[in-house]
Amino acid sequence: NKKGFLKNHVILKTEIIAAKNLTFIGISPCLMAYFSSFLLRSVTDPRDGKRVALKKMPNVFQNLVSCKRVFRELKMLCFFKHDNVLSALDILQPPHIDYFEEIYVVTELMQSDLHKIIVSPQPLSSDHVKVFLYQILRGLKYLHSAGILHRDIKPGNLLVNSNCVLKICDFGLARVEELDESRHMTQEVVTQYYRAPEILMGSRHYSNAIDIWSVGCIFAELLGRRILFQAQSPIQQLDLITDLLGTPSLEAMRTACEGARAHILRGPHKQPSLPVLYTLSSQATHEAVHLLCRMLVFDPSKRISAKDALAHPYLDEGRLRYHTCMCKCCYTTSSGRVYTSDFEPVTNPKFDDGFEKNLTSVRQVKEIIHQFILEQQKGNRVPLCINPQSAAFKSFISSTVAQPSEMPPSPLVWE
Ligand SMILES: [Zn+2]
């Protein structure tokens, strides 16, 4: 009953309440950040006093496409169980369905992200680069084992806390891999600088290798402290890539659209200039450049996988450091460190997106999401909900999120 709900929940003076015992928390004004699909706020969980991040998923029920996208993201956030992948710790208790417009997700609080770190004056040692790259690939191996393509790997989507623990976030563009090569996939993915050549060339079908390309670009950016391929347009993006890798073979362009292939063949024949990668920084050792060149491979079928990249000797020190003092999977006893039997775990079973097939109307999806959130809360903890009358909350919900210019630019139309 609507009136009853309002009476019980609105007249509280706190920002967020635990629904039954009325413990309260404040929203800190100091930490606000924007992701492409989220507005983020730092809050304190009243049940245990821990600092966490509160994220608003806005404009959920505008149309069926946005409903489905948000439901997929929500399902993924609840599915993930990996230290290098951001997951939902909790979802706030939704109001009565008639008032249900926004979804609030509680996640771990991360102080920074790789973009902020790269552009900061803070020195990055080769140990930093190794432990960051190790964690990106460790998280990606897990995501790919779940059958998920992230499709927007970029430094701003790699959260980092003060202990250098890294988590992949923002699954607004993520989807389950498409194994049927005759099925078309959207090309409106991946921020341009990190976009794989097969997407730039209009391939109708692509694999999780697009994420590895992005990681290669980020690896080079960590070494050189500047964006590797910083072009003004998708065509120039492709040209910068071929400047480094040389003109691709016809075989490497087999999935490209006709217009993109014609553009490459019309241009001058370029020789690869990979040795220039040694000039990125003094940390660009033989091992580093060797691994980088295995990621920045034009042909996606020849690009290294996350699993194989993790077996590269360049990452041995990163693995050791991570599992010696940063991970949660190993522990220390009086007689020494006890290491986990599986340093880079995968998931089984895969993430199942079969639920998306039967979603047909906004109202129906709204009811399913409402029910899904209530089911997630069946546990021992008191459910959290929000006080919509508080001043801090009002400023929080009126903040804007995800301007169109922040979204990945639309791809070039070749034909
Ligand atoms: Zn460990």
From TrEMBL:
PANTHER family: MITOGEN-ACTIVATED PROTEIN KINASE. Keywords: ATP-binding, Cytoplasm, Kinase, Magnesium, Membrane, Metal-binding, Nucleotide-binding, Nucleus, Serine/threonine-protein kinase, Transferase, Transmembrane, Transmembrane helix, Wnt signaling pathway. GO terms for molecular function: ATP binding; MAP kinase activity; metal ion binding. Residues 19-315 form the Protein kinase domain. GO terms for cellular component: cytoplasm; nucleus. It holds the Pfam family Pkinase. It catalyses: L-threonyl-[protein] + ATP = O-phospho-L-threonyl-[protein] + ADP + H(+); L-seryl-[protein] + ATP = O-phospho-L-seryl-[protein] + ADP + H(+). It is found in: Cytoplasm; Nucleus. This is mitogen-activated protein kinase. Its EC number is 2.7.11.24. It comes from the Eukaryota. The lineage of its organism: Eukaryota, Metazoa, Chordata, Craniata, Vertebrata. Belongs to the protein kinase superfamily. CMGC Ser/Thr protein kinase family. MAP kinase subfamily. Signal peptide: none annotated. One of its GO terms (biological process) is Wnt signaling pathway.
